[in-house]
Write a structure and sequence with these properties.
With about 550 residues, this protein is of the alpha+beta class. It contains 21 helices and 21 strands. Strands 3, 4, 5, 6, 7 and 8 form a six-stranded antiparallel sheet that branches. The termini are far apart.
């Protein structure tokens, strides 16, 4: 019997070994989350990872929230301008460029935890029911809306809504004993691209464009028609602070000023073959003397416009080096209402420049702080501080040298004006005290201020009111120590801000810009160029341009 047991031992050991291997394989596969499948199909790693987390992670995880947090991080690894837009933010992000949104038609600020109506948009829903500048909204849909709940985000959420929907407002109006009630039917509220269009003097016009949206080109045509009716002989297009928008809008605008068959811009990417965009000769202002203003806040579509004008020698660019965004984003929407803006190509000016400033993966902070770096290096104050990339020299149609590697360098540099800047003024501005004071002043003197229907008349009245000293007394009560010597050094800056904000509150954006432009050194330089009939660039004495279709030269 013992011998028989010994004979069966090898067989039993073999069975146990096979069983052990089978059980081990089973548990390895079960608890490793299909490890081999993940390794062999890297394109599905992300979805597999999320599935494993959802199935096996020690705590319960909200996978939707995890995805929302991961999307921006993934896109940030590509370049500084590919981005993710959550569904809740998409309408807000796109409304600005679409030219309208649905709301009640007011401009407001939040003061002392209450909505203060700064301006009622002409022809909008609120004007139709009788809301007025100076009103305070204290109730929305029969519920009190004052206190800490009153944030800009929450206010927009409650006041905006679908076209045709209604919102009930309770209004406190200074001078009225009882709360006033209005029912406003929400409607389409225009978002203008052109902030101002007026004649600076009897010969030259000025147009300020704040973005490139769906309505920008029609707005430009209306502005040009208005100025041409006033016998405009030369034009200033102000793109300072214009961060861009739709490339198509910029192309339409440039086309208005170029003769037929001039290259405006071209785009090219790994999966996007080169595509040229050229003028078609239908523009009605092809011979109008033109000056374009840019600064470090001018980006993307603004740089397309300025680059096309510069490279085609169509006008003079004045100001400071532009931002340097030369990447083209394509919007792609998901079924849940969210979207991404994915960089699919670079755009190039007619001379061949890609004006995208350099960036390195993993150094997003450096990219975001680029403007601060420029400021610290003195680029805003001296053209000599700007280091052009000598390895990227290109030439305009007349053979003038221009440079790639980051932004549009203007033909005429105008430094940032720092005259009169003091720590006292900077603190007053940074703490928002100037804006708060001018709102309060406007609010308490609205009836008197309504007697003046132009910026010039209103400014003349404000100069008699000793506003600077009134402000200093008011600001001291708010915690800003009065510094008389510094206040006098910054007197012109204070008065420009005080008068300008009150003019804006009473007369709107165009009057405000017109007032500021009276002393704006960049605008004054543009007028000088137009007066001297020097807006059309001249060819250098010895043209530098090589073959017209290959304008790039190699620097030694």
């Amino acid at each position: 019997m013992k011998n028989n047991n010994k004979q069966f031992m090898p067989f039993l050991l073999a069975v146990c070994l096979v069983a052990g291997i089978a059980i081990g394989t089973f548990y390895a596969n079960h608890f490793s989350g299909n490890k081999l499948g993940i390794i062999n199909t890297s394109s599905n790693k992300l979805s597999a990872l999320l599935h494993i987390i959802d199935d096996q992670y020690v705590d319960t995880v909200n996978i939707s929230e995890l995805v929302e947090e991961a999307m921006p991080q993934i896109l940030s690894e590509l370049d500084p301008h590919s981005s993710y837009i959550p569904a809740k933010d998409l309408e807000t992000v796109t409304a600005d460029l679409k030219g309208s949104f649905s709301g009640i038609g007011i401009q407001f600020t939040i003061q002392d935890d209450t909505i203060h109506v700064n301006n009622v948009i002409q022809g909008g829903p609120s004007e139709k029911v009788g809301l007025m500048a100076g009103d305070r909204i204290i109730e929305i849909d029969d519920s009190a809306f004052v206190g800490k709940i009153v944030t800009n985000e929450e206010s927009m959420k409650r006041l905006k809504g679908p076209k045709g929907s209604k919102v009930k407002l309770g209004i406190y109006r200074p001078g009225e004993k009882e709360t006033l009630h209005f029912t406003v039917v929400r409607g389409d509220i225009p978002v203008k691209s052109v902030d101002a269009a007026y004649m600076v003097n009897d010969k030259f016009g000025y147009i300020r464009v704040n973005k490139f949206g769906e309505t920008t080109y029609p707005e430009l045509l209306i502005a040009l028609a208005k100025l041409n009716q006033e016998n405009c002989k030369g034009l200033i297009i102000d793109l300072r602070g214009n961060t861009g928008g739709y490339m198509a809008a910029a192309i339409q605008m440039v086309n208005e000023f170029l003769p037929n068959n001039r290259l405006i811009v071209y785009t090219q990417g790994r999966k996007s073959p080169r595509e040229n965009y050229s003028s078609n000769g239908t523009g009605s202002n092809q011979d109008m003397p033109l000056v374009v203003l840019v600064d470090e806040g001018s980006a993307s579509a603004s740089e397309i416009f300025a680059g096309a004008i510069q490279d085609n020698d169509r006008g003079t660019i004045i100001g400071r080096r532009s931002f340097g965004k030369g990447l083209v984003q394509q919007p792609i929407e998901f079924s849940d209402g969210s979207a991404i803006r994915l960089t699919i190509a670079r755009y190039y000016t007619p001379s061949g420049r890609c004006i995208q400033k350099p960036y390195e993966k993993g150094k997003e902070d450096e990219y975001e702080l680029d403007l601060l770096t420029r400021y610290e290096h003195g680029e805003f104050f001296s053209a000599d501080s700007i280091k052009q990339n000598k390895n990227e020299i290109y030439y305009t149609s007349l053979g003038r040298p221009v440079y790639g590697g980051g932004g549009i360098m203007p033909d005429i540099f105008v430094p940032q004006d720092t005259a009169g800047m003091t720590s006292y003024f900077r603190m007053a501005a940074n703490k928002g005290l100037l804006i708060r004071y001018t709102f309060d002043y406007t609010d308490h003197n609205r009836q008197k201020l309504q007697e003046y229907d132009s910026a010039e008349k209103l400014e003349a009245y404000l100069k008699t009111q000793n506003l600077l000293y009134q402000f200093a007394t008011w600001a001291e009560k708010k915690g800003l120590k009065r510094r008389n010597n510094l206040m006098m050094k910054s007197r012109e800056l204070f008065e420009l801000s005080l008068y300008g904000n009150i003019i804006y509150n009473m007369l709107g954006m165009e009057a405000y810009i017109e007032f500021l432009n009276e002393t704006d050194k960049t605008v004054l330089k543009a007028l000088e160029v137009l007066e001297k009939e020097e807006s059309f660039p001249q060819a250098p004495d010895e043209p530098n341009a090589p073959e017209k279709n290959d304008r790039k030269a190699t620097a030694a």
